[in-house]
TrEMBL record:
GO terms for cellular component: cytoplasm; microtubule. It comes from Rosa chinensis (China rose). The keyword GTP-binding applies. This is GPN-loop GTPase 2. GO terms for molecular function: GTP binding; GTPase activity. Keywords: GTP-binding, Hydrolase, Nucleotide-binding. Small GTPase required for proper localization of RNA polymerase II and III (RNAPII and RNAPIII). May act at an RNAP assembly step prior to nuclear import. Belongs to the GPN-loop GTPase family. Pfam families: ATP_bind_1. CDD domains: GPN2. Binds to RNA polymerase II (RNAPII). One of its GO terms (biological process) is embryo development ending in seed dormancy.
Length: 328
């Protein structure tokens, strides 16, 4: 069995940087990795790719030859790749012996929730080459700084999950930059766990520009909550702990951790339901004022306990029976 990741997400969400960082990390932990560039708009690649779609079709040629814009050109390229899937299969076959595959896809989001070419390509590869792939959907974390943008990120993630029908992980990328966009309205957990969107609606209601969309936003939030499928993990690609945490999650999602286990279903389920790692990126979002408040409450509790013990001791000496009854 061959394992890997399908890296998708809107333009600029960090897919190419992710493939570069992830391949370096996986190689450091001893896996042989092959990065497959399926983005015909990727001119300069930071990683060494094992297969490059540019050897089959170039976006600039397609745009010039068929008088298409970049979006139409990309749809054409995916269509062309689907029709020439044998070309891709032939190049992937030598890698199947020992490689972990990272597929770098284009950023045009309509390819992953509207058109079927990209999905067909992935499904054909999975079937023919017996691949175990997980979709890693990157969304720029700065979208959390604006409630309306966050709702659209949720909708995009949900539509992509439903359309792609792959084991799926949504990632808030560039989490190291989120503080540059000002203080978030809620703790980071709120945005990653997607638990109660009514708070978000309240926040949206404060904005007079969005007043006329109130009902629409409410309905959209209702759809997201009804499906109850979307949640996020966080990523700073430059931080090895953050990448390591994500690798563990992906290994569970695409089944990599089960590959070397020859055991009963009980052993498999033990690993599958194992503890989720602490998302340490959330830690800095516990504000200092809360820490001070907690310390103060702790101090007051200890003080009251000492006083109570001292008073009990004094009263006990004068009237042990009534003290015992009061204590009980
Ligand atoms: N600070 C920070 N910057 C990041 C991170 N990931 C990506 N970037 C930056 O984000 C920018 C866009 O990254 P790309 O990897 O080109 O994004 P992409 O999704 O491949 O973009 P397209 O190919 O246009 O779809 C680059 O300047 C990266 O250096 C991250 O985790 N932290």
């Amino acid at each position: 069995m061959v394992f890997g990741q399908v890296v998708i997400g809107p333009p600029g969400s960090g897919k190419t940087t992710y493939c570069n960082g992830m391949s370096q990390f996986l190689e450091l932990i001893g896996r042989k990795v092959a990065v497959i560039n399926l983005d015909p708009a990727n001119d300069s690649l930071p990683y060494e790719c094992a297969v490059n779609i540019a050897d089959l079709v170039k976006l600039s040629d397609v745009m010039a030859e068929h008088s298409l814009g970049p979006n139409g050109g990309l749809v054409y390229c995916m269509d062309y790749l689907e029709k020439n899937i044998d070309w891709l299969e032939a190049r992937l076959k030598p890698l199947l012996k020992d490689r972990y595959l990272l597929f770098d896809f284009p950023g045009q989001v309509e390819l992953f929730f509207l058109h079927s070419n990209a999905k067909n390509i992935i499904m054909k590869l999975i079937k023919k080459l017996n691949l175990r792939l997980a979709a890693v959907h990157l969304v720029d974390a700065h979208l959390c700084s604006d409630p309306a943008k966050y709702v659209s990120a949720l909708l995009l993630s949900l539509s992509t999950m439903i359309h792609m029908e792959l084991p799926h992980i949504n990632v808030l990328s560039k989490i190291d930059l989120i503080q540059n966009y000002g203080k978030l309205a809620f703790n980071l957990d709120f945005y990653t766990d997607v638990e109660d969107l009514s708070y978000l609606q309240n926040s949206l209601d404060q904005d007079p520009r969005l007043a006329k969309f109130r009902k629409l936003t409410k309905e959209l939030c209702g759809v997201i909550e009804d499906y109850s499928l979307v949640s996020f993990t966080t990523l700073d690609i430059q931080d090895k702990e953050s990448v390591g945490k994500l690798v563990k999650l992906i290994d569970k999602t695409n089944g990599y951790i089960f590959a070397s286990i020859e055991a009963s279903a009980v052993e498999f389920s033990k690993i599958a339901v194992g503890p989720v790692d602490w998302d340490y990126h959330r830690y800095p979002f516990i504000s200092y004022s809360r820490i001070l408040l907690l310390l103060f409450l702790h101090f007051v509790t200890v003080l009251s306990f000492c006083r109570c013990t001292y008073n009990l001791h004094v009263v006990w000496a004068s009237n042990p029976l009534s003290t015992y009854i009061a204590f009980c």
